[in-house]
Design a protein that fits this description.
Blueprint: H1 2-24, E1 34-40, H2 43-53, E2 56-61, E3 66-71, H3 73-80, E4 85-90, E5 93-96, H4 124-127, H5 130-134, E6 144-149, H6 157-160, E7 169-174, E8 179-181, H7 190-199, E9 218-223, E10 230-232, H8 233-245, E11 252-257, E12 259-260, H9 271-281, E13 285-289, E14 310-316, E15 327-328, E16 346-349, E17 353-356, H10 362-366, E18 371-373, E19 376-379, H11 382-399, H12 405-414, E20 420-422, E21 425-426, H13 430-433, H14 440-444, H15 458-463, E22 468-469, E23 472-474, E24 480-482, E25 518-519, E26 539-541
Parallel strand pairs: 6-9, 6-11, 7-9, 11-13, 13-14, 14-16
Antiparallel strand pairs: 1-3, 1-4, 2-3, 4-26, 5-10, 5-12, 7-8, 14-15, 17-19, 18-19, 20-21, 22-25, 23-24
Length: about 550
């Protein structure tokens, strides 16, 4: 009987406890954690503070004095109270900027092996006169190009070997898993396609020119995106951090960033942009996609909105071998940026470019009709245009290794050719094509100096002491123009240059340089009260006064 009473008592107590748990459970505060970028005065200090609060550290990012961490809301609030913590950013998703479902090529019929209806652009190296440099043995030899993307497939011998069949992939680094390995996998296909346009040592025909712009450049593969072409800020910043840490070891001179995300803050508040600016300051030429959300104005993505770097839009060959009928690709993103900078700086071939792709990749399986022959895939996007410019930079640096990033940008722009519609009239606005189509030959032999990033001080920018605005403004009718000139108005329509003349190279040859910057002032607003992305802000800083609210984007 005693045992029976005790058993009943234990069961009754357990039932009461279970009932209380079920009743109270919905009211328990959640302790779920999210991924953040915690930026501070130095990495060691914020690491210690984050561990002290109980946060789980996932990334170490010295390039921006930051760490990645999983934090609960309470832990995040606690960290914000420390003066050593400058800002806490929510992690973001970012995508590769390839346009696999090209607007111009959505036909699905045709032979699985050879797709004559695709009309691939096989002439892009010749159209920018890179082929002329190849004949002079300027092929990018001795220059390392780092591609931050979905990886590079090591089964492509034209990527792993140069024109003399020497091995040229110096390293494979996986920023997602944070390890250097002997991998060489690319589940997406995007990274291999981009890399092949920049540096493939193959030829489209036995007696034809090289498929890659810089066929002898060395390669560094940095994987930061998955097979879906998706990445995170944390992994991409870690990729940039690794590239900077190994800059001297692998002689990394050029970074190809064929990805984009919508901006949600001013350029200097974005942690990815800060990492890109640090790489540029360290002497690495950064080439980034404008994005594929055009043709509307103000559609330049991150990190293409960084004023210092080279941002690339896309041109189409119009399915002809002629160059005088080339046209701006309808998807190519256009400027200006919200800070008033003219973007992109240049445009390059970016529609229906033929590059290497394995058929078992994610893109290869989804768009199998885009294979022209064997493992050669037709793809469009500012990703591809960016790769063309990346290869061009490698050629320039082989010819003159002493060039700084600012010098490279200057010469690329000074030698570019704007698309004209006749009688020296611009076919497209400067906000759509920048300085125009790149010319590798003329850029390589250019002697232009001091014509890029005028009045900008990247050290002051990174330190937070000074930020900059570009010369673009918007009038009461909604037209964009360059402050101090009425030559470059644009009403935002796709193919409108509004009839204004190029005027003998006005803009960068006569001292009125549209890529110059002016010191940012709080009163710099778009004059039509344009709201910035519906007031979205994802920067969470202890300095709340520095945050931008929608109410500040008003008419000045």
């Amino acid at each position: 009987m005693f045992l029976y009473k005790n058993a009943v008592k234990i069961i009754f107590t357990a039932l009461i406890a279970l009932t209380l748990f079920l009743v109270m459970a919905p009211f328990k505060p959640t302790s779920s954690s999210l991924r953040y970028i915690v930026q501070g005065t130095n990495t060691d200090t914020i690491t210690e503070l984050t561990e002290k609060t109980g946060g789980e550290i996932t990334h170490t990012l010295p390039i921006i004095n930051a760490i990645g961490a999983k934090l609960t809301e309470q832990q995040r609030q606690t960290l914000l109270r420390y003066p050593q913590v400058i800002a806490i950013y929510a992690d973001r998703t970012i995508h590769s900027a390839g346009k696999d479902d090209d607007d111009e090529d959505d036909e699905n019929e045709g032979d699985d092996n050879v797709r004559s209806d695709l009309a691939p652009d096989l002439n892009y190296a010749a159209r920018i006169e890179a082929s002329r440099l190849h004949h002079s043995n300027i092929t990018g030899r001795g220059i390392s190009v780092a591609v931050i993307d979905t990886g590079i497939d090591k089964r492509f011998e034209h990527l792993t070997q140069d024109t003399e069949e020497d091995d040229r992939i110096l390293a494979y680094y996986d920023a997602i898993r944070d390890k250097e390995n002997k991998g060489g996998k690319d589940g997406s296909g995007h990274g291999s396609h981009v890399a092949s346009i920049a540096v493939s040592s193959g030829r489209f025909e036995d007696d034809g020119g090289y498929a890659g712009i810089a066929p002898d450049a060395d390669l560094v593969s940095i994987k930061a995106f998955d097979k879906e072409g998706k990445g995170t800020y944390l992994d991409v910043i870690r990729a940039l951090d690794w590239a900077l840490a190994n800059q001297d070891k692998y002689n990394i001179r050029v970074l190809n960033l064929s990805f984009s995300a919508p901006p949600q803050s001013l350029y200097w508040h974005d942690p990815l942009n800060l990492a890109v600016m640090t790489a540029w300051q360290a002497g690495i030429v950064v080439v980034a996609s404008a994005g594929n959300t055009g043709p509307d104005p103000m559609t330049i993505g991150v990190p293409g909105n960084v004023p210092y770097i080279i941002t690339v839009g896309a041109m189409s060959d119009n399915k002809t071998l002629q160059t005088d009928d080339d046209m701006l690709a309808g998807f190519s993103s256009a400027g200006p940026t919200i800070e008033g900078f003219v973007k992109p700086e240049v445009v390059a071939p970016g529609t229906r470019l033929l590059g290497l792709m394995k058929k078992n990749t994610q893109i290869g399986k989804e768009y199998k009709d885009n294979f022209y022959f064997d493992e050669h895939f037709v793809m469009s996007g500012t990703s591809q245009a960016t790769a063309v410019v990346t290869g061009t930079v490698a050629l320039m640096l082989q010819q003159d290794p002493s060039l700084t990033p600012d010098m490279v940008k200057c010469r690329l722009m000074a030698s570019a050719h704007p698309a004209l519609s006749g009688a020296d009239e611009l076919a497209y606005s400067v906000f759509q094509q920048g300085a125009g189509m790149v010319n590798a030959y003329q850029a390589t032999y250019s002697s232009a100096l001091d014509c890029a990033n005028g009045n900008l001080d990247i050290a002051l920018d990174l330190s937070g002491e000074q930020h900059y605005a570009g010369p673009a403004r918007r009038d009461q009718d909604g037209n964009f123009y360059i402050e101090g000139s009425d030559f470059y108005q644009w009403d935002g329509e796709f193919a409108s240059g509004n009839g204004f003349m190029w005027r003998d190279g006005f803009m960068w040859r006569d001292g009125l340089m549209w890529r110059d910057g002016f010191m940012w002032r709080d009163g710099f607003m778009w004059r039509d009260g344009l709201m910035w992305r519906d007031g979205l802000m994802w920067r969470d800083s202890v300095n709340q006064a520095a945050d931008i609210s929608v109410n500040r984007w008003v008419e000045d």
